[in-house]
Amino acid sequence: MFSLIEEITEADLKSWRVIVNSFEDMEREQIRALESLYKEAKAWFVGPLLLSDQIDNEEEEDDDDDGNEYYCPDEQLDDIALGLEAAEQPFVWVVKSKTWAAPPGWEERVEGTGLVVRGWAEQRRILANSKIGGFLSHCGWNSVLEGLSMGVPLLAWPTGAEQPLNAKIVANWLGAGIRVLEMSDGVDIVGREVICEKVKELMVGEEGRKARERAMEVKRMAWEAMKTGGSSHRKLNEMIECLALRRKEAYI
């Protein structure tokens, strides 16, 4: 496994170009830093690619999006449930655990306020609904792009891999979200009180209002980037032209 990672790293560093599923207006300060990691490679920012099938028809459905996959212990799900109840904000909660059972009486108490979806849900379609005011996410990059491209601020709850960095981008750099916890907090289970507090702050607090405004601004930039003549559209055309030219030169 380590040998495979070494091979991938070596191939990556020798790359001629880097294709990035993001857009220049959101990453402008980081583009030069990314390109400095390579000897000669330049970056093509061609995203958010999730919008590529929606620019011409905003109502087109995508049945392939399954959202994030993350194992959450049942004990944590209990605190999420009770935190959502205490926050008294309408919610849609997708629960994929096959073993979790709601606390006694909880489903009856949140009836009319909360909707629990068991198993799969079409995440992007939910986020595209104008009534959605926030998105509790572990901050996988696809979910980050889906939320912000729809103008929805994130309640960032990273758990591993690149997610802490993505959460920092959303909350600290873009100002389009709020962190559930700082990484230095080092807790295993996030209590219902914290969840309640953060949900209320995102939905009705001043910090949440500012995050929502920033998320709408990021949405505007994302859609502009993907439109004909936008930065991502131009970079995609540039990429196609460069690849076609290199292929032609290879046969000369």
Task: Offer a quick outline of the entry.
The chain is mainly α. It is 48% helix and 11% strand. The protein has helices at 2-13, 24-35, 74-87, 106-109, 123-127, 141-149, 163-173, 192-204, 206-226, 231-250; strands at 17-20, 42-45, 91-95, 114-118, 135-137, 154-156, 177-179.
Q: If you had to describe this structure to a student in words, what would you say it looks like?
A:
With 252 residues, the chain is mainly alpha-helical. The chain has helices spanning 2-13, 24-35, 74-87, 106-109, 123-127, 141-149, 163-173, 192-204, 206-226, 231-250; strands spanning 17-20, 42-45, 91-95, 114-118, 135-137, 154-156, 177-179. It has a three-stranded parallel beta sheet with strand order 5-6-7, sandwiched between helices. β3 (91-95), α4 (106-109) and β4 form a beta-alpha-beta unit. α3 packs across α8 (192-204) and α8 packs across α9 (206-226). The protein starts with a helix and ends with a helix. Residues 59-68 have low confidence and may be disordered.
Number of DSSP-assigned strands: 7
Report the order of strands and helices.
HEHEHEHEHEHEHEHHH
Structural class: mainly alpha
How far is the N terminus from the C terminus? 39 Å
Number of helices: 10
Tell me the fraction of residues in β-strands, as a range.
Answer: 5-15%
Low-confidence stretches: 59-68
- Counting copies of identical and different chains, the oligomeric state is single chain
Strand order, largest beta sheet: 5-6-7
Compute the gyration radius: what is it? 20 Å
Q: What is the arithmetic mean of pLDDT? A: 90
State the share of residues found in helices, binned by percent.
Answer: 40-55%
Main sheet record: 3 strands, parallel
Which geometry do the CA atoms define? elongated
